[in-house]
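Purpose: get a first structural picture of the assembly so the mutagenesis plan has something to point at.
Setup: two entries, given in the order below. No constraints added.
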Amino acid sequence: MIIINLNIKGLGGGVKAKYLKHIIYKEGVEFLCLQETKVTGFFDFKCVALWGDNKIGWVLNEGENGAGGLLSMWNKEAFEYRSHVKGRGFIAVSGTHVKMNCLCVIVNVYATCSISDKVVMWDALSTIKSANHNEVWCCCGDFNAIRFMEERKGVRGFSS
Amino acid sequence: MELPLVGKKFTWYKSDGSAKSILDRFLVSLEWLQRWPTSKQYVLQREVFDHCAIVAKSWAKDWGPRPFKTIDAWLLEPGFKDLVKGKWNNYEVQGNRMSRLKDKLKLLKTDIKEWNKSVFGNIEECKREIMMEIENLDVKDAECDLLEGEN
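Result (structure tokens, whole complex):
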């Protein structure tokens, strides 16, 4: 399974779309997770243009007031979509990875800096996970969190 | 579980370069690793963003075609320049300029390899022989003083 993850901070300009298209082609990406897309009313043709192919599926989570939008997108030939769940700050897409014939859930996450929001989000995700035992899970995104001090440089003070 | 990070050490860089962190990551369930045991997350070059794109995939990186290399010692050998000049002008290749250059380099590589063998021989072998000789002399030196000529 080849998945790409990027916090894109607005999908607007052509430069970003061009970069993504290049990476998708070069790496043979099967599933794409974008955070902070900042788009509303995403149209089919935009997605097709982004991937450079019309054999794709996608789910958009517009976020709140244009902040924290998420986009999950996949190649239909590599990934057979079954269902999805959207929540505050995440999209979980369930489907089959064709080559491996493997049921998987791919979660696209954008966590805010607020700890209480994070708790709500992780609670929602773990509820979903405990209800789905047959799938293998991959959770990627911008977690807005570091686990150890070594994961950060140049920022003073310590949060969460 | 977090996939091993390959490439860069951080995924986010503040635009003025004063701070960097790992904010973006891939977490997978144990079963995922059983399916794709060699999964890693590769942090790509940062382009127009403050975040780096990360690719999660499960096979080793393709290093691409082998580069064309030369050894400095070849350039000191008198016959080398003439060999290259002579060979280069006599190759018959077709296609556009880029592919002609590529094909010529490929042909040159084989010719230089042969030339290297006949002129330098196996340098690893030579090195081993010399090292052995030094080693022998050292042993001899430890036992008794070397003769004038052996020093």
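The interface with chain A takes residues 10, 12, 14, 18-29, 31-32, 34-36, 44, 47-58 of chain B (CB under 8 Å).
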